[in-house]
Amino acid sequence: MGRVIVAFLPDIERSAILSRLSPQAHTPQTETDAARLDAIFADCRRLGYCMADGEYVEGVASLAVPVFDGMRRVTGALSIIFPTHGHDATEIAEKLAPRMQATASALGSALQ
Fold first, then answer.
1. Distance in angstroms (rounded) separating the CA atoms of residues 13 and 90
2. pLDDT mean values, one per 10 residues, the chain (112 residues)
3. Any bridge partners for residue 62, and if so which?
């Protein structure tokens, strides 16, 4: 969930946060390279959601969407964590993301 919040911060804020972090791998899938993380954040912004597959716990994926305030600033996130055993996490994310984005939009409207 933190990844989606960081992804949608203004560039200067995101850079400041990343400069203070030293990511640690929890599994072989955990991304710790700063340049690769920056590319992942760009993908998150392009897609409107972030997905991590097995990066914290093997066999578990997470999907998160941003919640924006009335000024289109990220103010929170909505996420789901799910087991991937026997399932394609990307397919699940593509099915769930539009519904989660609609819910996040409604939550953002309620915060105004």
1. 28
2. 90 88 78 84 95 88 94 93 88 93 93 78
3. 52, 81
Between CA 46 and CA 40 the distance in angstroms is 10
The angle formed by the CA atoms of residues 72, 74 and 80, to the nearest 5 degrees, is: 125
Find the radius of gyration of the CA atoms of the chain: 14
With a threshold of 0.85, does the pTM exceed it?
yes
Length of the chain: 112
Hey, what are 40's tokens? 């992942």
State the chain's maximal CA–CA distance in angstroms: 41
Cα 45 to Cα 79: distance, rounded to the nearest angstrom? 16
Sign of CA dihedral 49, 52, 57, 61: positive
Residue with tokens 């804020």: 13
What is the CA 60 to chain-centroid distance, rounded? 14
Q: At CA 80, angle to CA 77 and CA 84, rounded to 5?
A: 145
